[in-house]
Amino acid sequence: MLDDSQPLYQSLALELRHAMTDGRLASGERLPSVREAAKSRGLSINTVLAAYRQLEAHGLIEARPQSGYFVRSRLPTPAAPRFAAASTTAKSAEAEVLDQISRVVVAQASPDTIDLSLACPKGSDFYPGERLGRLVSDLARRRPELLSDYCLPPGSLLLRREICRHAQDLAMSLEPENIILTNGCMEALQFALRTVTGPGDTIALESPTYFNLIPLAERLGLKTIEVPTHPESGMSLDALELLLSERRVQAVVAMPNVHNPLGTSMPVEGKKRLAELANEYRVPVIEDALYAELQYATPLQPTAKAFDRDGWVIVCASYTKTLAPGFRVGWMEGGRFRRELNDLKFCSSVSQPALLCEALGVFLESGGYAQHLRRLRRTYAGQVERLRGLIDGAFPAGTQATRPTGGFLLWVQLPAGCDSNRLFDTALARGISITPGQLFSPGGRYTRHIRLSGCYPFSDRHVHALMTLGELAARQL
Predict the structure, then answer these.
(1) Residue 391 contacts residue 79 (beta carbons within 8 Å)
(2) What is the sign, positive or negative, of the torsion defined by CA atoms of 462, 464, 469, 474?
(3) Which helix (H) or strand (E) covers residue 318, if one does?
(4) pLDDT in the model for residue 94
(5) Torsions phi, psi of 250, nearest 5?
(6) What is the separation, in whole angstroms, between the first and last Cα of the chain?
(7) How far apart are the C-alpha atoms of 364 and 276, rounded to whole Å?
(8) Whose CA is closest to 317, among 175, 159, 174, 183?
(9) pLDDT tens across 146-186, in order?
């Protein structure tokens, strides 16, 4: 009921604020459109818009392009990790971390668990599977040579041209002859590390970092130094520059856009400085751009590669998170190392499947990709905000979580007294799989953190698993 004693827009804003406080409007929930609210309440559009803008100014709701207004969650964001990376000794990964990674991967593969943190979207909500299937069938019928002829490097020219065209959205100016097609982004990262380092070398990794880089470095005989990475400012470039100036690392691996597991991006000036450091100290930076096209805001922020002058930045990406994980089609642009990378790709796996690469090229050329990405960004922005709201309601007081700027991953910090490794064990006993924070650090840091994912439909079963996880975390206190 609106209060006649104050302006109508203030009365409406107060009513909506109370609905958020008592849970009738949950975090992540979409508000009625301005037009709908005006019609249902007999108010003017300007009155409703003024109320929504007042709530937005107080940080209670947020406007999403082409989607409307949504209730913001109240979860605070975690602080930056505190440790002196520049004084850390280069070392191999802790055996406990490697063992835990193996355990988590086994749990994620089990059909008997519901996974709350696996970064693998599933289903038609996130991939244009039917359209790609029709493209593959049509191409196989019209061009049978794609199945019968050997596909020699460098592979589909159409796809490589389309990669370069879409890379312009990330401010990269690339040439098709310099694009190397790979078996997903992980193969690209592996090739980059094998090309620019050798056994016994040291690499700088963000902390936290993508956990699969840790066993990869171990198997390549590499040591690591962790560089603190802040959800808002990204990798500490002051710490990194000290390491570079002292010649303590032979390569850097970073994810400046839509970081895994943080879900946030380094500011543009930081990416520019990262590329400048690579060129100044002549140390390669391997940029993981896997999620870069899933930034929520447009125009998209540039990659670090966009600022590369002399070819010291190697950019790696794939279409496994945006189009077709089963195709396993990735790509890289190797800068000054492209010839060695081409040779390594040829002697490792020769090339990628011609039919699948050509199908992706046709899809990208048709304009379908841009439309698909727009819808996917809106979907993930809503999914992540709803996930934050569910965490806010289910997890113990003191829980914190990042506020992602893209993708579908969330980095959650549990209150003091919680242990994410014990939480993994107790949750697994209930048929729930999560990814403990320790996996994202070669040194086993982040024992109060977990990564959660918003790339699944929020079914009743999924929501119940999240509620159960929050209850298990509360029991530790």
Answers:
(1) no
(2) positive
(3) strand 313-318
(4) 92
(5) -100, -10
(6) 41
(7) 32
(8) 183
(9) 999 888 889 999 999 999 999 999 999 999 999 999 999 99
Long-range contacts of 374-378 (CB under 8 A, 24+ apart): 374/66, 376/126, 376/294, 376/322, 377/294, 377/295, 377/296, 377/298, 377/406, 378/64, 378/65, 378/66, 378/67
User: What pLDDT is attached to residue 2?
Assistant: 57
Neighbour tally for 145: CB within 10 Å? 8
Instruction: Give residue-wise pLDDT tens across range 112-138.
Output: 999 999 999 987 889 999 999 999 999
DSSP 151-181: --TT--HHHHHHHHHHHGGGT----GGGEEE
The overall average pLDDT reported for the chain is: 93
Positive or negative, the CA dihedral 103, 476, 443, 313 is positive
- Residue 150 tokens, joined: 């050997």
User: Position 318: which residue type?
Assistant: S
Full-model pTM? 0.89
Question: What pLDDT score was predicted for residue 86?
Answer: 54
Of the candidates 145, 128, 124, 197, the residue with the CA atom closest to the CA atom of residue 344: 197
